[in-house]
Design goal:
2 domains, seven-stranded mixed beta sheet, Dipeptide-binding Protein, domain 3, D-Maltodextrin-Binding Protein, domain 2, alpha+beta
Amino acid sequence: MLHMHRSVRLIPGLLLVILCIACAPAAEVNSASPNRIVYGLTLSPGGFDPHRNESSELGIPMRQVYDTLIYRNPTDGGFVPGLATDWSISDDRLTYSFNLRQDVKFHDDTKFNALAVAANLDRIVNRDTRSTKALTLLGTYAGYELTGEYSINLKLAEPYSPLLDSLSQLYLGIASPTALAQYATMPERYQFHQVGTGPYMMSELILDNRLVLRRNPNYTWGPSFYLPADDNMVEEIEYRFFADPPTRFTALESGTASIMGEIPPLTARSMTGNSQIQLFPAAVAGQPQQFLINTRLFPTDNLAFRQALVLGTNRSAINDIVFQGFSPVAWGPITSNTQFYNNAMNGLYEYDSQEAIALLASAGYIDADLNGYLDDPSPDKEDVEVKIIVPPWGATPQIAQLIQDQWKILGIKALLTPVPDFSTLLDLVTQGDYNLVAFYTFGVDPAFLNSFFTTDGSRNWTGFSNPELDRMLFDAQLQLESGTRNTLYGNAQQMIMDNALILPIREYVNLNGAVRDIEGLTFDPYGWFPLMANVRLKQP
């Protein structure tokens, strides 16, 4: 039976703020439980349902609740079996066939099979679910065919090479069809009652307060890199939220938390001599921390001007001051640990204020009134101003302040517009009255570049349009052969930087801290999500 889904339009999810303590499977939180830890998150996401929401933060706990059809091995990034034992791709690259494990049960004792996979796919493409990232990850998915109790074919409308990468991500984790059916008419309620097949089960969720998981005692079907269960495993994990950066190290030091994400770099530097606290840096694949440059608005509509901005930004100094040397300088539109990174990016636009000033002069920008700022080449001779949208995350306000100071050397006046959240940022971007905006996303496969740099990309906030770049990025999504994709993505990276469409700052490194009793803390290849099945508590 072939089920084809209709074209789906993305609609922002509506979150009903409902506090719910009774979650399935229910469990009472016992602060005296043996092998119990507190894991600190940096913010409370707008929602915890990976099919509906897209925050990286939600994946930290939910990666433990859900298994995926396949996984990426954290050692080499290669694909390994998960809930699927093996898979194959048709010659026309339009059918992906999966054979499934036959020994798996969901936390509610529902049997895992092909029907369960189908139920999850149906939910993601259903308009009522209002899926965000999960739906995007499915790419050109057009339906499925059930070929047996434990086998399923996924059908594509056109070849989509990132599909395996997508299926390895938490956002396409497989949920219990029984639980999904129970909340089918209230998809926003499912986040409080999530049921997967993973090594941990959801016990309690109180929005903006805590999320509690407990170990799944029946879990024996994890990927090859999961360790077998033993007495030193973490039995219960309570996730709490530490939005204020200074409180994170304090929580570790006081024993309030055992593991903490995103330790501020200055604090992390001071931890190096602390025998009670361990530091676990995790490189995050995807886009670097960057500013997208608007090519449609004066003065960044001029190539030489854009190139001067990149050349005139001392990124090494920014990384030393803000990130204490923990993060490498970023040179291009993807990080060096992202698939198909072009090594020719290394050292591109290295800081040179004199060359930047010369570029500006060649484009007609001079300080005619000698007030310290370059003037508009037009007859009005107004000071040149560059408008920057500055969100609060990733120390972006500190970065923007340093850029503002550095650009004064070039004679450029940077106007900073702080925004409190993503929705406000999106409103300003929609209005179009900006020159730079700080935004980036994460992923191992660089297919995410399409939404940022193709003419009709949903986040083409540079406004750049080039048929050749469009062709390269679309072709890279169609091809399976890695050498071909490497060439296409390499050329695309070069074109993006030749046109100075971004100001890359640093490769994102998540600085995680843990008390000394924590052993085996590692992260998946995406850099955000810990493998809690491998964490052990050192016994006294």
